[in-house]
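Exercise 7. Given the encoded structure of a 387-residue chain, write a plausible sequence.
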């Protein structure tokens, strides 16, 4: 994609060549239709993240400079696992649907696969992403496939007192609450209304191959529009209950604490991390000949536009690549950078959604008065040196 300014006539001529190109792209790997200029070189960011201090929990972080495809290849997709990361054999596994249902159910992987198949292209971001200087790459986009959850809950017949659906993983660890020590499985819950959203999948496939072990084999929940934490891997049991579920990853960890001003008074809020928030980043700067381009991504809501600011100057509109477009997937954007001067520069991006909401600035109280690191969707700035 080339965003150099062209006359209308040029556009018409280019448009027809672009169409030929597009047809060719569609016949080949989707990954090829990505903002690209022949002979381009990526200029690495100056502000490289420090080394990951918790490789046992977080792995394979995305290197933004390497972003060159809309879908993230599985071997480049980040991982988060808070407990052990079970290797489960298909024949030893089945998924239980239990609790406050008329007809408890159990599915083997083959039985899940025999049900109606649904796909979704969804950008999964860890809510801790950008919460620490080392944590910039906790995000990826994949084509997930599975079977919708809602009809299964429907068939199981949720009883009238069932208000909450808890998703338990097979991974477990020791937890301590008020000096009570206990083993707990990883688990997250959703209200019945959220759980029965038609987009939610019991997912067994990632980018066309069986769900890799690190991403939850044999099956995981995929909850499009929610932060990573909601997408429970290594699913073992789905239980309908009549109270709110208060496990570690709902009510202790993954809790956002903020100071808010209400009628001149400070109120401290504590909320469980849930739906994804509006966000964008500058991903990379490329150069070919004397032309510079900034390429980035935006996600976390219906993106209307993205704006880019260089060295605190005016906000400039980026061009969103609408050739690769899916409701829950990041949008790839780019902008020409006309004649940058040699030396250091700062590049900031901000996303605006279709309702006009803007990704908050770092000094916005929603970010500045946030006291825990989750849900860090403030505007991201990167530094670069042009030589
Ligand atoms: N069972 C289980 N599911 C889990 C987790 C976990 O530790 N155990 N981590 C969650 C978090 S915090 C994130 S960000 C995503 C990461 O998904 P990925 O490893 O496929 O990228 O998985 C979520 N699902
Ligand atoms: Mo996460």
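Solution.
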């Amino acid at each position: 994609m080339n965003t150099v300014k062209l006359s209308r006539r040029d556009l018409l001529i280019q448009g027809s060549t672009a169409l030929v190109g597009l047809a060719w792209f569609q016949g080949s790997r989707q990954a090829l239709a990505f903002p690209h200029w022949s002979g381009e070189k990526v200029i690495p960011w100056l502000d490289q993240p420090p080394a990951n201090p918790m490789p046992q929990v977080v792995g394979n972080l995305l290197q933004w400079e390497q972003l060159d495809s809309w879908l993230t290849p599985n071997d480049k997709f980040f991982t988060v696992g808070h407990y052990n990361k079970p290797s489960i054999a298909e024949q030893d596994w089945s998924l239980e649907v239990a609790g406050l249902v008329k007809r408890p159910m159990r599915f083997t992987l083959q039985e899940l696969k025999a049900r109606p198949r649904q796909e979704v292209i969804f950008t999964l971001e860890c809510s801790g992403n950008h919460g620490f200087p080392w944590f910039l790459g906790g995000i990826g986009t994949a084509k997930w496939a599975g079977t919708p959850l809602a009809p299964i809950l429907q068939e199981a017949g949720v009883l009238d007192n069932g208000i909450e659906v808890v998703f338990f993983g097979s991974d477990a660890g020791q937890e301590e609450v008020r000096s009570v020590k206990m083993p707990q499985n990883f688990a997250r819950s959703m209200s019945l209304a959220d759980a029965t959203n038609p987009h939610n999948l019991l997912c067994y496939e990632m980018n066309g191959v069986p769900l890799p072990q690190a991403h939850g084999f044999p099956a995981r929940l995929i909850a499009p529009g929610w932060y990573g934490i909601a997408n429970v891997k290594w699913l073992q049991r789905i239980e309908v209950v009549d109270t709110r579920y208060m496990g570690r990853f709902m009510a202790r960890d993954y809790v956002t604490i903020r100071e808010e001003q209400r009628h001149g008074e400070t109120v401290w809020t504590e909320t469980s991390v849930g739906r994804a928030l509006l966000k964008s980043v500058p991903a990379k700067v490329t150069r070919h000949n004397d032309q510079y381009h900034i390429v980035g991504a935006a996600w976390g809501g219906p993106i209307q536009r993205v704006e880019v600011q260089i060295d605190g100057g005016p906000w400039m509109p980026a061009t969103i690549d609408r050739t690769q477009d899916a409701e829950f997937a990041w949008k790839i954007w780019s902008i020409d950078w006309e004649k940058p001067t040699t030396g250091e520069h700062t590049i900031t991006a901000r996303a605006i959604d279709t309702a006009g909401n803007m990704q908050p600035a770092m000094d916005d109280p929603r970010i500045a008065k946030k006291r825990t690191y989750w849900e860090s969707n403030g505007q991201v700035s990167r530094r670069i040196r042009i030589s």
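Remark. Residues 77-82, 124, 126, 169, 171, 186, 215, 228-229, 231-234 surround MTE (ligand 1) (CB under 6 Å). Students should compare their own answers with the one above.
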